[in-house]
Design brief:
Strand content: 15-25%
CATH superfamily of the largest domain: Glutaredoxin
Number of helices: 5
Helix content: 40-55%
Order of helices and strands: HEEEHEHEHEEH
Distance between the termini: 94 Å
Largest sheet: 5 strands, mixed
Radius of gyration: 23 Å
CATH topology of the largest domain: Glutaredoxin
CATH class of the largest domain: Alpha Beta
Strand order of the largest sheet: 5-4-3-6-7
Structural class: alpha/beta
């Protein structure tokens, strides 16, 4: 009976120690989440102090690539105001914003020829995301830090960029501000 009591006390102490460590881990995770949110909000993440892509006013670098069907893709052939989205199949925010991007892209006057979607990963990893984007965009699959990502200064996912007259008009992690700028620019001015 004494062995049973000692074993129960030992198991109870181990459970208590485990509980204390679990509370510590949860507390640290909350602190890290708050710190990441503060960094994201301050705009100091990414390349050169910008968000997740080149900032407004920047010029996109040159790149050579091909879309999933094999046709060459160049920025010059994408019209005056191409919309570009960068996605990763392993990124939870990408999965959240993908339907918004696809819906907006489908409603753009320029059609899929003026929307570029870059999906990062292997063809096997990216097949579901590519299938969702093909009806509304020119889709490129490339490895991490591929030529299109480097040209746009992409440092995180998702990233959205609206080009206007060859320079970045709007960019960011959140799609809504980029979509709003795109929708406003698509409306002809009265007058």
């Amino acid at each position: 009976m004494a062995y049973l009591t000692a074993a129960l006390i030992l198991v109870g102490l181990l459970a208590l120690i485990n509980l204390v460590f679990t509370f510590g881990v949860v507390r640290r995770l909350r602190e890290h989440t708050a710190e990441l949110a503060a960094l994201r909000g301050s705009g100091v993440t990414g390349v050169g102090g910008t968000d997740v892509a080149l900032p407004a006013g920047a010029t996109v670098g040159a790149f050579e690539t091909a879309e999933v069907g094999g046709r060459p893709v160049s920025l010059a052939a994408m019209g005056e105001r191409p919309l570009v989205g960068f996605f990763s199949p392993h990124c939870a925010p990408c999965k959240e914003r993908l339907p918004l991007f696809a819906e907006h892209a489908a409603s753009r006057p320029g059609g899929a020829g003026e929307v570029l979607a870059v999906v990062v990963g292997t063809p096997e990893e990216t097949s579901d995301v590519v299938a969702q984007l093909l009806p509304v965009a020119t889709v490129v699959v490339e490895p991490d830090q591929g030529p299109v990502q480097r040209a746009f200064g992409v440092s995180g996912f998702p990233a959205f960029v609206l080009l206007e007259d060859g320079v970045v008009g709007a960019s960011g992690f959140d799609f809504e501000p980029v979509a709003s700028r795109d929708a406003a620019a698509a409306v002809p001015s009265a007058g």
